[in-house]
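hey so i finally got around to running both of the ones u sent me last week. sorry it took forever, my laptop kept dying halfway thru and i had to restart like 3 times lol. anyway pasting them below in the order u listed, first the sequence line then the structure token line for each. didnt double check formatting much so if smth looks off just lmk and ill redo it

first one:
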Amino acid sequence: MRYRVLGDTMPAVEVVFDAPGETMYTQSGGMAWMSEGISMSSNMKGGFGKSLGRMFSGESFFMATYQAERPGAMIAFASTVAGEVLPVNIGALDGIGASGGLICQKGAFLCAEESVTLSVALTKKLSAGLFGGEGFILQDISGKGMVFLEIDGNKVEKDLAPGEVIKVDTGNVVAFEKSVKYEIETVKGLKNIFFGGEGLFLTKLTGPGRVILQTQNFNEFAGRIIRLIPGK
């Protein structure tokens, strides 16, 4: 398969299949446009248990699989918010996700080749799940092949050295390699808690490993819009 990312504000990834039988899958409603020569099937990818877990991690219960019936068939998947589409070659010799895949926040997954596995990943500490802002369940992306992630706003990559720490508002975390330690840290100081405007908790990421951040916290952005609606 070949791909290209189209657009700047609301991007999409357009995939061209080179051979019959090549497939891509996405959550229900993720397809934007496609040519003739592609068949679609909706299924509980991985069975009921994995489908239920994906639903709690922010994806749909049913996944849509698109298979090429002839060479040159084309399909596109569009992002849902303004930002970027990030191509990641899971299991490659180098690059992010090369060493064992990625852990992602819910909603980061856009689409992937059939050889890429999307499953749930429980945070190692209960406090990280209860207070992290993105729920107890994260997404585990593994296998080999291309996966495309949604970035809200602009992408920022950090390559953390062993023991190096970065503290992030949870809504600004997109993904990190499995070698990165993930914890929740309480904001210190009563005045900071009540008047700092950053909430009670921060995500603490400790290297080694690569981290992908995003400049927009969409949940915070949506909250500001809701507060402007009369009667809310």
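and the second one:
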Amino acid sequence: MFSFFLTGCNKSGLDYTIETVLNPNKISPLTAILNITSDIPCKATVKVLGDISVEQSFEESSTNLNVPVLGLYPNKLNQVEITLDYEGGQKIDVIEIQTSEIPNYFPDIEVNKLEKDKMESGMHALDIHFANFGKFRSAPIIFDDNGNIRWYLDLSFHGAMVGPFQKIKNGNILVSGRRTIYEFDMMGKLLVMMKIDNNYGIHHDILELPNEDLLLCVGKRDAYMEKDGKSVLSDNDFIIHFDRKKSKILKEWDLAKHLDVNRDDLNFFRDGDWFHMNALEFDKRDSTIIVSGRNQGLVKITWDDKLKWIMSPKQNWGKSGRKGKGYDTKPYLLTALNKEGKPYNKDVQNGIKSADDFDFPWGPHAPSLLPNGNIIVFDNGPFRNYNNENNYSRAVEYEVNEIDKTFKQVWEYGKSRGVELFSTIVSDVDFLPTTKNILMTSGFISPKNVHKAKIVEISPKDNKEVFEATIFLKNTNRGNKPGWGQTDVLYRSERMELKN
């Protein structure tokens, strides 16, 4: 962190000083604060100059302004234009701010396609986590259309993975560790830190509800299930409703109550990780929750804890419950219909085969509701059709008829690109509200030679790419053993405006 002063005046009598403080909160190195003192109240506009400028205007008029600067270029003597508007005149100055290099383990970014007039506005935010010898060092990044990193948040102080990185309704950044929830502003200032009950551990997702409470994906201490006659500790199979204002847990859902914990057709981790919950979506139309379980599929439950449906291949579903003594899950399985409204054959319903125009989401991530009520989800595709022969990932849209317990595939993108976008884990898909485009993130593409991720913005009208970037991951801080925390992962990405 450093600071310097600039003093100026003009013929109309505005006297002012500008103190520049780089990285004021010590975790956001491409930001600065301008402390502007003047003899006449004024308003400020700041603009980071460059190929892609970043500009912010502020309505506050005062003789003492604290103005945030975001979007500095790394390793550069940045030119920042400051416009001061006051009664009777305007003053424009340019100051210089020197920044340091970004960390050497950050990815190289290549923009492959850019059709700006067809894209959603904003920059490109990465919820990225770097290998750190069996743990993760988390540092969300925002880059511009030229592939230049213009913002990042160094969260290494936490000592483990922190995420997912998201901007919430109040404009702040929300991330979490296993038992700690952090809320920052874009300058890296810690605004709120909350702890959850030690009997729970947050895993993979936090969802902000319309009333600003949170839904958390969690594992619960001492939650056991029966597997092959043995008692096994489970994980990632509870949801909790968390009151942010009171920092209090209000409600709990146990997914094992509603599902078959012994169904292991897609579980390749350990017996207790039967579901592997990774994402939540809230349907405000009927106060229900759509849950993504990597090892089972998509599930919808009600606020009062009842199962509505299961979207998954129908093979080998039995009774629900931690001891397998609950109700039959089969009546809750959605039946897949073709475009004519007729059910596909048994092999397709069981997931043994895929139809040309339909498939289930295999190992899914990031379901969300579209404005038309349909569901869009990232279909990772690991072990598709219970084999390793059809390796592709895709974004896919489904229409669900909850009364008839049926669903149809409406749209897809990615299948034709095969292994080029194939990500067995993590990943994301988002609806972009202005353009109605789809943003697809394949976060862990790992062919033999190059480990990378892909971000693609697609116009669903013609399935044409309007933006594409390749994120080349470096994996510099790896141990000798493979596994979680030994390779870089891009968990999600968002289109995001760079402003405080």
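quick thing i noticed on the 2nd:
The CA atoms of residues 113 and 467 lie 5 Å apart.
anyway thats it, ttyl
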